[in-house]
Specification:
Blueprint (H helix, E strand, L loop, with lengths): L1 H4 L3 H27 L6 H43 L3 E3 L2 E3 L1 H18 L3 H16 L2 H9 L10 E9 L3 H14 L4 E8 L4 E8 L6 H13 L5 E7 L3
Antiparallel strand pairs: 1-2, 3-5, 3-6, 4-5
Helix pairs in contact: 2-3, 2-4, 2-5, 3-4, 4-5
Length: 238
């Protein structure tokens, strides 16, 4: 009887409207992710949005606004764990951060819908879709732009190949050459290669370096009998 007595048509319709709004808006966000063939696609975003709406709506029904605020805090942290499941690391590359952030936003849309903030839920959906679509050409343009080595923070590495018999002498030489050029070292790593050959990777502390100076250091290392080959690279910090 408690189930029947607790039923109120107005409350039920209010909850139904919240779930429907969350479903529709989650579908819009998820459709874009599905079109891009991302791991967190249509159904995932819909379920996150509807689930968040349901939890917040239940809390409002039982404890009012204070209860909804507490549940929203749990939704924020809980969806963070869910988003971590779509993030993958492959070597130095990390994939899925944007999808995880989109799931987080879908939860926010659902929380707005569950809190009866329909207009805010719609507005947030528009911003999420704009971030995933309208900003894409800008991101592509930035990625294609040439990197200014002097104006951009980067990680510089000097790489030189030698063998185990010459390893210690090679390490001392590469350290002395870089120190003489006033490039302090963060460290020198040794990676094994084929048939006893090893590669020394000297990482510079400097966030900017002169390419001509590094070219000159590499030429000096290649002329030395301690090395078979030398080069330098620059990459973005991890």
């Amino acid at each position: 009887m408690a189930l029947v007595n607790s039923f109120a048509t107005s409350n039920f319709l209010d909850s139904l409207a919240s779930f429907f709004i969350a479903f529709v808006l989650g579908t819009l966000i998820g459709a874009e992710r599905q079109y891009r063939q991302r791991s967190g696609g249509l159904r995932t975003n819909v379920l996150v949005a509807v689930g968040a709406a349901a939890f917040v709506d239940i809390a409002m029904r039982l404890s009012g606004n204070d209860g909804a605020v507490r549940v929203i805090a749990y939704v924020v942290s809980g969806v963070g764990f869910l988003g971590a499941g779509v993030i993958m690391k492959e070597g130095k590359n990390v994939w899925g951060l944007n999808t995880a952030a989109t799931l987080w936003c879908s939860a926010a849309v659902g929380a707005c819908a569950g809190s009866d903030l329909a207009a805010e839920a719609v507005a947030l959906t528009v911003f999420v879709l704009a971030g995933n679509t309208l900003l894409r050409p800008l991101v592509n343009a930035i990625n294609r732009a040439p990197i200014s080595e002097k104006g951009t923070e980067a990680v510089y590495e000097v790489r030189a190949t030698t063998d185990l018999d010459r390893l210690e002498a090679a390490r001392e030489l590469i350290e002395s050459k870089l120190e003489a050029a006033h490039y302090p070292l963060r460290g020198v790593a040794v990676e094994g290669r084929d048939e006893g050959s090893v590669e020394l990777i000297a990482t510079l502390i400097a966030s900017a370096a002169n390419s001509e100076e590094l070219d000159d250091i590499v030429v000096q290392l290649e002329r030395s009998p301690s090395f078979d080959h030398a080069s330098w690279t620059v990459r973005s910090p991890e």
